[in-house]
């Protein structure tokens, strides 16, 4: 199971990679635009924080396969390390996936809203497919149901493509996506931290410290 951080915010990436067992970072054009920075320079800063082995998923913007392939090649030249090219599941995107997959490029099919889109992307060579959970829920569809269906169909047809569930608004969506077998999730730092916080954990720790200090004072277990 993989945890990725869905942000280009350097402070959040530094904090998450320092504290937590993160596997990589995903960005999209909106996430990059929020930071309002030099694109490649910024991605290289992310790379230097997370190291060469952690995944970075970076999205192309072109509307034709030719443009997407050109952008992908530029990103591959400039970024390096464990890089996945994010390509939307449009017709041109699927053409670009076929080409790039044949050239040995790692691909994440993004903006997935149906299981059939995910299957075609898998057949075109995508390594990950990214179903958008919250955006589906927001149109009264069933985001987690879609994730589960994709997991089942990829397995039924023996694809090695993994599901990278994305677009989360809350912890419940993340939890439910994991329960239906998503191989990976990408989420922002707040949602990740909300998923591990519990008031009873905090009060238990406070009580342990108080009980210990009542007998041993400020000495810790290292004495
Ligand atoms: C994933 O790859 C997308 O960048 C992202 O999760 C979309 O999330 P949003 O719906 O919160 O914008």
TrEMBL record:
<dbReference type="GO" id="GO:0016740">
    <property type="term" value="F:transferase activity"/>
</dbReference>
<keyword id="KW-0456">Lyase</keyword>
<dbReference type="InterPro" id="IPR013785">
    <property type="entry name" value="Aldolase_TIM"/>
</dbReference>
<keyword id="KW-0963">Cytoplasm</keyword>
<dbReference type="Pfam" id="PF00923">
    <property type="entry name" value="TAL_FSA"/>
</dbReference>
<dbReference type="GO" id="GO:0005737">
    <property type="term" value="C:cytoplasm"/>
</dbReference>
<dbReference type="GO" id="GO:0005975">
    <property type="term" value="P:carbohydrate metabolic process"/>
</dbReference>
<dbReference type="GO" id="GO:0016832">
    <property type="term" value="F:aldehyde-lyase activity"/>
</dbReference>
<dbReference type="InterPro" id="IPR001585">
    <property type="entry name" value="TAL/FSA"/>
</dbReference>
<dbReference type="InterPro" id="IPR018225">
    <property type="entry name" value="Transaldolase_AS"/>
</dbReference>
<keyword id="KW-0808">Transferase</keyword>
<protein>
    <submittedName>
        <fullName>Putative fructose-6-phosphate aldolase</fullName>
        <ecNumber>4.1.2.-</ecNumber>
    </submittedName>
</protein>
<keyword id="KW-0704">Schiff base</keyword>
<dbReference type="InterPro" id="IPR033919">
    <property type="entry name" value="TSA/FSA_arc/bac"/>
</dbReference>
């Amino acid at each position: 199971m993989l945890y990725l951080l869905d942000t280009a915010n350097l402070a959040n990436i530094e904090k998450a990679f320092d504290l937590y067992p993160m596997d990589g970072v995903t960005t999209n054009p909106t996430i990059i635009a929020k930071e309002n920075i030099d694109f490649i320079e910024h991605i290289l800063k992310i790379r230097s924080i997370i190291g060469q082995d952690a995944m970075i998923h970076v999205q192309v913007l072109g509307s034709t396969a030719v443009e997407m392939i050109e952008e992908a090649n530029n990103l591959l030249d400039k970024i390096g390390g464990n890089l996945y090219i994010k390509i939307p599941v449009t017709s041109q995107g699927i053409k670009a996936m076929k080409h790039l997959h044949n050239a040995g490029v790692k691909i994440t099919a993004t903006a997935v809203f149906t299981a059939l889109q995910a299957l075609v992307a898998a057949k075109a060579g995508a390594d990950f497919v990214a179903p958008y959970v919250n955006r589906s829920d927001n149109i009264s569809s069933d985001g987690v149901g879609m994730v589960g269906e994709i997991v089942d169909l990829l397995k039924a047809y023996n694809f090695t493509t993994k599901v990278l569930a994305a677009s989360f608004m809350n912890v419940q969506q993340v939890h439910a996506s994991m329960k239906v077998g998503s191989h990976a999730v990408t989420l922002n730092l707040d949602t990740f931290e909300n998923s591990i916080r519990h008031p009873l954990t905090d009060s238990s720790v406070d009580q342990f410290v108080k009980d210990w200090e009542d007998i041993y004072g400020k000495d810790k277990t290292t004495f």
